[in-house]
Structures are given as structure tokens and as C-alpha cells.
User: Fold this.
Amino acid sequence: MNDAIDDMELEEQFRASLQRHAEDADTSVDLLGPAQASARGRRRRTWAAGAVGLAAAALVTAVVVQNVGGPGGPGKPQFAGDEEVTDQWRSESWHGVELDVPADWAWGSGPVESGNETLRCGGPDEALPYVGRAVMASDVCAMVDEPVRGTYVWLGATMPAGTRDLGGGYVSRTVDFHGTRITVTTDNEALSDHIIESLRAPEGCAPSLDAAPTVDSMLTEGMGDVTGARICAYSRFESDDGTYWLVYNATLDARQAMRYHDALYDGTRQNDREFCDQRDEMVLVRMEGTDFYGDVPVTQDSVVAPLCQQWSGGPGSVTPMSDEAERTWAVGGLPVTLYALIGPMG
Amino acid sequence: MCRPARELCVDVVVTDRPAGASTFEDWATARVPALLRFAYLVTGSQHAAEDAVQEALASACAKWDRVSRTDDPESYVRRMVVNAHISGWRRTRRESPVEVVRDTADADPSASVDTSDAVWRVCEALPRQQRAAVVLRFYEDLDYPEIARILGLAEPTVRSHVHRALAALRTELTQEDER
Assistant:
């Protein structure tokens, strides 16, 4: 019976069996009341966490991101300091996971595996709340056996799952989500709850790509007004099978998006036809706006290959990025996420 | 129902939903049985299914004003159920959920039941994400783009998950034939 079974027959067997087993579920249990009670507690925690975020925003007027070089130079204020952040929370993505953190947190490095050791290479120190990705952002490293006191989220750090009391009111919680490890450390339980409860699959960007992103079409008349943009940064450095993993995402408002747009479309036109071979990191930029006449919403994709310092705005069109354009373009968490922007170490 | 819950989760009227399902309470009451069956297939356990659905409902309730405006609230809740299970982390009510052995007195050793059991064995052996893909495809009858959206995966990855599950079932049936 076996070899003769085609996929369609197997599919039917799956359908019939699942339908039969679904009837085994006891559907008489009352879940509504407990769910509503849980929602009330959740709402209270969210309000508490919101109050914490507002207080922090009032105290922090300019957040300085890590001192790890990159096009912006050491200590260059990034989005959270020199841009107007209107949202209280921002989303952060890493290897199939997305979560929310207070919008004024810095970006930096988190622990990475190196041989048999777990190292943290690069800042910031624990004086600032930050999001640390499993990236080596400096050649100066410290061994990390366990979470330390501070307020941060580590994305992809291989800490053991569980909860640790670090003393002084600080608690570190490490959880697995879609196979990616997340560590949240803070002395504020409501904040920790909010971050962990926000864990989800990425929503604005594909969590992974089987191949480097490409731009398949372009607007013949260009874009009129730019109203926003979405940035999806991918890397295959930590991938065994060549999969590009989403390592960073950002949503830009109109002003930020226009700056991005101008940095890419700066008048330079030198058709290289294809990217260089260093395509381990690729960034998809989706501009949103209106058409040239201003009455039809349109989007325009661009792909940047930071290691090549090139970008593509349409099929068969690859253009070098000037240093000035890249400095303008590589902001937010990108300079401490992409090795192309972290630059050579040692 | 208690007053705070009503304040949080009801009185949101959405015109494009079926009559009688305009509040969280109405919607959840109508959909919980189907969600439990879905969660049971995804988790393979009554207790885990209850935990996953309750967690998803709590999340949907807290955000009902936003969730109810989506085209398909059930899709949102299904995604929460799957995420809760795949993550392997949630505040379970039990330290070690015990598999519930349902009454199978009506089962007989006919070929169709053998095949059904083979399918269930294959499902139990699948990684959580792959199992969720199979349930969404063959129980919920969703297309691949929709499954990819719910699971947060690339569409080819979903196709690969389903293809491998079919291959696993073929192998299981082959071995059963040889026994």
C-alpha cells in the first residue's frame, strides 16, 4: 500500500485522523472566566510598566548608544536621543523573535558563544538600560557566566532558562521562544512581565529568508511624498544552512524615512548590475508614501548590501553608497547589529 | 460577569462580525470549543490545550478593542495558541502536565483506525512548529501563506514542514505494513 500512496491520499488521511482526534478534546471546560481574570491582572501590570516607561522618558533626555565605532563614531547619539520618539515602546527583532522594550533604551551587544566560553564583547555597561544582541561589537571581551545586575534584554544569549534572583531587587528571567533564548533583567517586575508577555513572532518583517532579498520592481516616476518606512535587516553569519535571519527591524516616521530616502537616492547613479560577493548581511528598506502626483499610496523597496556598500533600487540596478550616505543611513540599532557597520576589530 | 471584566472586554461593536458575536464574551463563548479542539491537536494534551487557549484568550481580552477590529480575530487567537505552545514557556497551572488518555472505547482495530493512530503517532513525533503547520493545513484547511503568517515563517519553510510530515506518515505506514 505504501509506495502507491500519493501525497493526496496521505493528506486525506491526515484530515480524517485530525478530525477524529479533535473530537477527543473536552470542550466543556470554563476558560472564559479565568481568562478574563488573567486579563485584568495583565492590564494592571501594563499600566504599571507604562508608568515606569514614562518616568524613564522624563529623566532621560538623550540616550547615548554604545561606544563601538561604526559610521556614527563613538558615542554618537542615535534615534532615541536625536530623534523624536513618539512611541513609548519600540519593537526589537532577533532570529524569529520580536518583543517590546521602552523606546528610550540603548542598543548594544549581549553575550555570544565563542568556543566553550560565553563572552560579552562591547558595551554599553549596565548603567544604561539597553537591548544587547549576540554580536561581537568589540575585540575587548569579558567572560559572562550568568546575568549581572542591570536593566537590559539579551537577545540570543545562551543563558540557562529559568529565573535568577541577583540580589538588590534585580531578577533575571531567561526563556526560550521559537528556539531563541531571551534574557530579561531588571529590578521592576511589571517591566519584566510586559517585555516577556510581548514576545511574538516578527510582524512587520519576514523572520527569515531563504535567499538574499531582491527588488523586483520599481516606480517608473519615483515617489512623491515619503510618509514612513520599514527596515528589515538580515544576517546569515550565524546560519548553518544559509538562511538569512532577521536581526533588526525599525519603523521610521516621515522625517526619518525621508532622511533614509535622501541618503539612498542621493543622485549617485553608477550601475554595477550586481552586488559584490559579500552578501552575508542584507537590509530591506520599504518606503511608504504617495506617487509622484500625490494621490495614490505606493511603496518602494530597496535592498542594501552593507558589506558591499552598495544598494539596489530596482532589477539590474546596483549603486555604490557614498560614505556620507552610509553615515546618514546607518542609524538606530544598525551600527551595533551589522558587522559591516561595526567595522574591523583588533 | 464581574464589572472590571466587562469594562475591559465587552461593549466593542464590530459590524463585520456575525450577529451575536459583537463582544469578547459572546465571541469567546462561541469560539472556545473550536479553539480547544485546535489546541488539543496542536499540543496533544487536554491540559496543555486548556492552558494555551486560556492564555490566548486572556491576551485577546486585554487587547479586545484592537483585536476585534482585525478581519479575523480567530486567526489572532490561533496564533497566540500556537505561540504559547511553541515557546514552551507560559505560566502553567501544573508543574508537569499529564497526558490525558481519552476514552477510546469506540475504537476498533479496523484499518481506518490503524491509519488514524499512525497519523496521531506521526503528529506526536513531530517538532512543535511542524506539528502546528500540519494542524493548520489539514485541520484548519488554511493555505500556505496564511500558515506562514500565523507561524511567523517563510512560506517555503511551511511547505517543507508539511512535506516532511507527509513523508513521515508514508514511512510510518510502510513500517506498519511490514510488521
Observations:
- Residues 3-87 of chain B form a domain with the Rna Polymerase Sigma Factor; Chain: A fold (CATH 1.10.1740).
- Chain B touches chain A through 63 residues (CB under 8 Å).
- The radius of gyration of chain B is 18 Å.
- The longest helix of chain B spans residues 155-178.
